[in-house]
Each structure stands twice: as C-alpha cells, then as structure tokens.
Design goal:
The complex is a heterodimer of chains A (166) and B (332). Chain A is 78% helix and 0% strand. With 166 residues, chain A is mostly helical. Chain B is globular, with a radius of gyration of 21 Å. Classes of the chains: A mainly alpha (166), B mainly alpha (332).
C-alpha cells in the first residue's frame, strides 16, 4: 500500500511539473488531468473513496473539460510554443522557485518534528461527508451556494443577448 | 499434485477468470453488434441487410475486421501525435472500466465498489477527452466542430445524468450497484423512478453519442466529425467503443431500473444470468430502434432540451423522492 502511495505521489509531482514546463497548452492540460487522477488515487488510498470519486468527476471530468474546451478554440501553432519558450526564462522562474523551495523546507522541517498522525485509519464514506456538510459545516455550504448563485446570475447576464429575438 | 492450490489462490484465479470472461463477452458482443444493428435496421426498413458472407450474412463482421486490419494505419503529418494516439485508447479504456462495476449476477462481477455508481460517473466524465483530443489533434476544421459539439453536449447531459440517478441512490441508500439491485427485490425501480429512468435513458444515449445525439459525428453536415482523420484500427477502436458504450449503458439501465439479475415473480426457475442477458438485450435493441426511428434534431434544440426540460425534471424527481423517503422513515 505504501509503495502505491509513493508511486502515485511521484506521478502527481512529475505531472504537475510538466504542467508548468510544457510549451504546448493542450499537453500541459493533459498533464494536469494526469496529476488530478494521481491525487484521486491518493485519496482512495487514504480511505476517502468518496472524495477521490468526486475529484475525478468534478475536477478531471468537468472543470478540466471546460479548460480543454477553451484551449481547443485558440489557434495553437508553433508560434505559441516559441512564445512559451521565450517566457520560460530563468529570470521568470527563479524567484517563484526560491519561494516554493522555502515552503518545501518549512514543510520538511515540520514533518521531521514527529508529532504527526498516520493517515488512513478510518474510512470516510459518502454518508459521513454528507453528515458533516449538513452538520457542523452548514454555514460554509450555504455561503458557497450563495457564491455559486452570484456566479450563475453574472454568467446569465454576460451571456444574454440585447436584442429581443435571440 | 494440487497441493499448491490454496483456497486463496483459487479465489484469485476465479476472480481473474470472471474479469477476463466479462471483458471478452463485452468486446465480442460489441463487435458483433455492428452486424446485429445493420440486420435489425434492414428488417425494420424492409430491406435484406448484409446477407452475402456466410449464412444470413453472419460472417460479415469477420470480413469487416479483415478489411480494417489490412487498412493502412495512417497518422496525418499535421496531427498532434501524442493526443492523436491517446484518444482511441481513452475511448476504449474508460468505457470498459465502467463496465467493470456492473454486477452481472449475485456471484458474477468484476469489482464490487462501495462507490460503484460514482465510479461510473467518473469514467463517463473522462470519456469526453477521447472525443475532444481526437477532434483537436486531427487539426481539421470539421473534426474540431464535432469536438466542440461533443464537449458542450456531454457536459450538459452529464449534469442531469447524475441527478437522474440520485433518486435511485436515495431509495437504495447506497452507491453500491449490488445494494441497488438488492433494494429492488420487491419492486423494480422503473415504477417509483419512472422519470429518473426516462432522463437517464436520454442521457445514456447522449453520452454514447448515439443517434439522435450523434451531433459530434453528424455525417451529413460534419463529414464524420471528430474521427474524420482516423483510419485502420484506430478508427476501429472508436467504432467498437461506441458499441461497448451501448452494451454498457443497457446493462446499467437494467441494473439500476429493472432489477439487474432479479427474476419476475413465479419465473425464478430461469437462471439469473439469462434474466440479465435478456433484459440487456432488450435495451440494446431499443437503442437500435431509436436510431432507425428518429431524426437528428438541430444542435441548439438538443442543448435547450437538456437544460430546460431534463434538468428541472430530474431536480423535481429527486426532491419528491427524498421527501417520500423521509416521510416513510421512522423518526430516529
């Protein structure tokens, strides 16, 4: 089980790196999909099959489809790859890389401390997720629904045609 | 001599054997379905259909396969190689994986997941990429138009496909497909969940891109749509994947709404596998009949129908089901 975890984590990290370094936008999105699937596999291993399935359905199956949908309509040719390559100079990525390295060092330091619990003891199924969503986290769910409603109204307003015959 | 056969090992062998048998039967049935479909359509349209190769044209599929194997497998030089090769594999893989969660009989089935239905949704969601990648990587305007239609159509129809089945889940209290079948011991879900069945049937046809929802590959306007640049076995994989989709959605309808392997009353002397096969066969034929009988609607009508008719219907169905279940549950 542990070896499976490390394999899935390695795939997730490598795929995420490829998202950043790939010059072809569609290949980068493909890497992002692979990364999300690897994270879903980790959820399955940690005993949260419901979260893993939702990760696949919502992120990999719906949100990423919209990303690919938009990128597909852009006219991507060799020019875009050249442009991407021009953007990916050391001047651009050195500072974010240093910041990420600081975060990594901090996380490793905290992990070294030894006061962490091993995950994956309990199985979190759909029922438990539902009970905690509509129990202690009810306010957050309601706030999220308000946000979604606002987004829906905004999208409707933006997509509405001005002429009456539309 | 057979000392090394421990019960555990026998169990492993039996499980693998089951999986291989189910895989082979599904793929072979799907391949043969192309002939069955042509025959049935011909009969309904008062024609003979394929009748040259073998008795009643039974070996037509063999001839078709030979033709396909000997065709040149051509990758266009202007195509994006990685996604072009990946797309047919995604089409086959996701559909076959969703077949794995379907319980055939009480003892037969590949995997028994406690989130079986969600796994099916996930695989159906990932299946969109096959069409989108095929459409985009072909670098062809017609295929791209087909891919855009496919993406918009599938996303719209998956929304209410999930909602249509939530009524079934509420009644069974589980995402496990075996539990859902067991919950139908007394009454098949088709009666209490009639609207769920109607909407899931429509969504199922849309997700497999079958007629009348074959907008992505509308021959007359898009010249075959997303797989226009494919040839040889890569095209064959799309073709077979569509038929596996038909088998899979039919089996899913049977499992969710028609009691899976459960027999009708007084008829339980017939083996449960026969029940499952007959029910699934009925829905496969219904898929073919729909193709033979209906015209293809306009694309914007398809989208309007999804969002303005099916989505509200499934929401009302879910709310009513939940209210009835709550009323019948004794207060804790």
């Amino acid at each position: 089980m542990e070896i499976a975890f490390y394999i899935a984590s390695a795939i997730a990290i490598y795929a995420t790196l490829r998202v950043v370094t790939n010059t072809n936008p569609v290949h980068a999105l493909l890497s992002l999909i692979v990364s999300l699937l690897a994270v879903a596999a980790i959820f399955f291993m940690l005993g949260a099959p419901f979260a893993g399935a939702l990760e696949i359905i919502v992120y990999a199956g719906a949100i990423m489809v919209l990303f690919v949908f938009v990128v597909m309509m852009l006219n991507i040719g060799p020019a875009v790859a050249m442009q991407e390559r021009a953007w990916l100079t050391p001047k651009t990525w050195v500072v974010p890389a240093i910041l990420a390295a600081v975060l990594l060092a901090e996380m490793l330091y905290l992990l070294r401390d030894g006061t962490w619990n091993q995950a994956g003891h309990t199985l979190v199924d759909a029922k438990q997720v539902g009970i905690s969503l509509f129990g202690p986290y009810l306010l957050v769910v309601e706030l999220a629904s308000l946000l979604l409603l606002a987004a829906l109204v905004a999208a409707y307003h933006l997509g509405k045609r001005d002429d009456q015959n539309g | 001599m057979f000392d090394w056969v421990t019960p555990e090992l026998a169990q492993i062998f039996f499980t693998v054997f089951q999986a291989v048998v189910i895989l082979l039967v599904t793929v072979l049935l799907a391949a043969y379905l192309s002939l069955i479909e042509r025959k049935l359509l011909a009969w309904w349209q008062d024609r003979y259909g394929p009748n040259r190769v073998g008795p009643f044209g039974m070996f037509q599929i063999v001839a078709d396969m030979f033709k396909m194997f000997f065709k040149e497998d051509w990758t266009p030089p202007f195509a994006d190689k990685l996604t072009f090769r990946l797309a047919p594999a995604i089409a086959m893989g996701t559909i076959l994986l969703s077949m794995a969660v379907i319980p055939v009989t009480a003892t037969w089935g590949v995997i028994d997941l406690n989130i079986g239905l969600l796994f099916f949704f996930g695989m159906a969601g990932l299946a969109v990429y096959s069409v989108m990648f095929a459409a985009w990587s072909s670098n062809n305007k017609y295929s791209l138009l087909g891919g855009l239609r496919a993406a918009a159509q599938t996303v719209s129809y998956e929304v209410f496909m999930g909602l249509a089945l939530m009524g079934v889940v509420v009644q069974a209290g589980s995402f496990n497909l075996r539990d859902i079948v067991e919950a139908q011991s007394n009454l098949w879900n088709i009666i209490p969940q009639f609207f769920g069945f109607c909407t899931f049937m429509i969504a199922g046809i849309a997700v497999t891109h079958r007629h009348p929802f074959d907008q992505p590959e509308a021959e007359q306007e898009l010249a075959d749509g997303y797989h226009i640049e494919y040839s040889g076995m890569k095209w064959g994989m799309f073709f077979v994947a569509e038929y596996i989709g038909v088998v899979m959605v039919s089996a899913m309808i049977v499992t969710l709404f028609f009691g899976g392997w459960k027999p009708l009353p007084y008829l339980d002397f017939i083996p449960s596998f026969v029940w499952f096969a007959v029910k699934t066969g009925f829905f496969i034929m219904l898929f073919v009949l729909v193709r033979g009988a209906l015209m293809r609607p306009r694309y914007d009508h398809v989208m309007k129908f999804s969002w303005l008719v099916c989505l509200p219907l499934t929401l009302v169905n879910l709310l009513v089901t939940a209210a009835v279940v709550l009323l019948n549950t004794p207060a804790a």
